[in-house]
Amino acid sequence: MNVLDAIKQRRSIRAFQDKPIEEEKLRRVLEAGRLAPSAKNRQEWRYVLVKEKELRRKVAVACNNQYFIAEAPVVIVGCATMADYVLTCGQPAYTINVSISMDHMTLQAVDEGLGTCWIGAFKEDEVKRLLGIPQDMRVVEVMPLGYPRFQPEPKPRMKLEEIVFYDRYR
Ligand SMILES: Cc1cc2nc3c(=O)[nH]c(=O)nc-3n(C[C@H](O)[C@H](O)[C@H](O)COP(=O)(O)O)c2cc1C
């Protein structure tokens, strides 16, 4: 699939079929994340794949009771090992690195006929406790992965003219 086609087809999926993900599809999604770029090639991303049904439900509760998360057969929890590195520009590297990696996954998921949803509303301490993630790590994203029940309508986006400036910001 053409990359722009995958970008255009991707939606936030909030309803999943009760259908397992083929192992080779799951591996290709993870591979897309593994190959992502990162500042100084630190690759501080680590992924906990939550498959147990009851654990998925508990993770969904820790995500402000967003129960649709538990419908997905796999919930990928994106973490970072080294949260201390700050880029010269002042941004913490780990949030950017993990986000790029997981965005790669969302696009590969589209190519596999799978759906994802970025979940930023979660109680980090609770997710860490449930999954045994060490205190000195950070959790960046929770991402359900599975077969969508339906393809939602696209959400509106701003026009290029509204967001792109040439030479000077105005
Ligand atoms: C950083 C971030 C956090 C988000 N957190 C949530 C969330 O907790 N729950 C949810 O249902 N959607 C969440 N979303 C999905 C957005 O609502 C969604 O991407 C946006 O409305 C655009 O819709 P689309 O992804 O279908 O194009 C999040 C997206 C991002 C990028």
Q: How would you describe what is shown here?
A:
The radius of gyration is 17 Å and the shape is globular. It starts with a helix and ends in a 7-residue tail after the last helix. The model has no long low-confidence stretch (mean pLDDT 98). The chain is 38% helix and 14% strand. By secondary structure, the chain is α+β, with helices and mostly antiparallel strands. It has a four-stranded antiparallel β-sheet with strand order 1-2-4-3, with helices on both faces. Flavin mononucleotide binds at residues 11-12, 14, 66, 117-121, 155.
Characteristics:
170 residues, alpha+beta, four-stranded antiparallel beta sheet, 7 helices, globular, binds flavin mononucleotide
Oligomer: single chain
Helix and strand composition category: alpha+beta
Spatial strand order of the main sheet? 1-2-4-3
General shape: globular
Give a list of the ligands.
Answer: flavin mononucleotide
How would you summarize this macromolecular structure in one to three sentences?
The protein is α+β, with helices and mostly antiparallel strands and 170 residues long. The protein contains 7 helices and 4 strands, in the order ααβααβαβαβα. α1 (3-9) packs across α5.
